[in-house]
Amino acid sequence: MMNRRIMAPAKSIGIWGNTDKPQFWSLLQPLIQWIEENNGTPYLTTRIRDVCPSSFPSQVHFIEHPDDLNKLDLLLVMGGDGTLLSAARAVQQASLPILGIHLGNLGFLAKVEENNVKDYLYQVMAGDYSMDQRSILKGTLQKESESVSHYAMNEFVVRNSQMHRIMSIEVKVNHVFVGNYNADGLIVATPTGSTAYSLSAGGPIMAPDVHTIVITPISPHSLTARPLVVSDQSMIEIRVIEQDQPFIVTADGQIHEEMFPSDLIQIQRGENTIQLIDVDSESYFKTLRTKMGWGQRGEKK
């Protein structure tokens, strides 16, 4: 999956964070000072600047335009996995390496703990790290009046706006009819997203380096409706049929679009990849065991 090798040292460091977490603010100022003391240049998002209760030193720079991302060597994302997902979508076109600092509850993607962030950041600034390439999905939503596109690192979800209603969802892969799912909804996930909502709905775990997409029905009303794994070179087409009510399409649980049965959803692999920085070469399967209890029987003694 990952080959550890010496990378280019990182000096210009962007900081993206969940500003609603008190841990973020207690860590921010010492981290800025530490970066500067180690000959780095910190860049903060304008949201951090706008909600910060105090001023910043004059040498701190701000990410005010998408072009400013090209000045960065890496993006330090401080928060939970949700924070990392939103940051990844925002910077995916810049191919910017991301180091996730875990301030949340699970931290499956943002694996670095806040108490050892400086040790890991020192490694990254020295170029001692490896890259974990993660695929993303591009969803094109063909509405009656417009066409909009969104990206997802985990998954797209099709669900009813009225959660108690069953949906009938037609699915095609590469224009070939697959079937109609009568279910509470449908998930289309990347290998990264296979351990998120798709897993909760009964989908398989897919290692992040496999080139696949999984289609997982949510609470299907048939014993024969099962998750389907297809090549990530596939075009997945989705229509909601046999209803006249609007429904919702979400990207990573954070972007919501209302659609109607006459609309078409097209999902395929995105043009870019998300580059996650790995600093300890911990295997993906060890992370599954330690973070999710995978492969364990009963409670730990």
Kindly summarize this structure in a few lines.
The chain is an alpha+beta fold and 301 residues long. The chain folds into 2 domains: 5-126, Rossmann fold; 136-271, Probable inorganic polyphosphate/atp-NAD kinase, domain 2 (Tumour Suppressor Smad4).
- Shape field: globular
**Which runs of at least 5 residues are low in confidence (pLDDT < 50)?**
1-6
For this structure, what is the CATH class of the largest domain? Mainly Beta
Question: What's the number of structural domains?
Answer: 2
Give me the count of strands: 19
- Helix-strand pattern, N to C? EEHEHEEHEEHEEEEEEHEEEEEEH
- Our count of helices gives 6
From the helix content, strand content and strand pairing, which structural class follows? alpha+beta
| Percentage of residues in helical conformation | 10-25%
Instruction: Kindly report the name of the CATH homologous superfamily of the largest domain.
Output: Probable inorganic polyphosphate/atp-NAD kinase, domain 2
CATH topology of the largest domain: Tumour Suppressor Smad4
CATH architectural name of the largest domain:
Sandwich
Mean pLDDT across every amino acid position: 89
- Whole-Å distance between the termini? 32 Å
CA radius of gyration is: 21 Å
Q: The biggest beta sheet, please?
A: 7 strands, antiparallel
Strand content: 35-45%
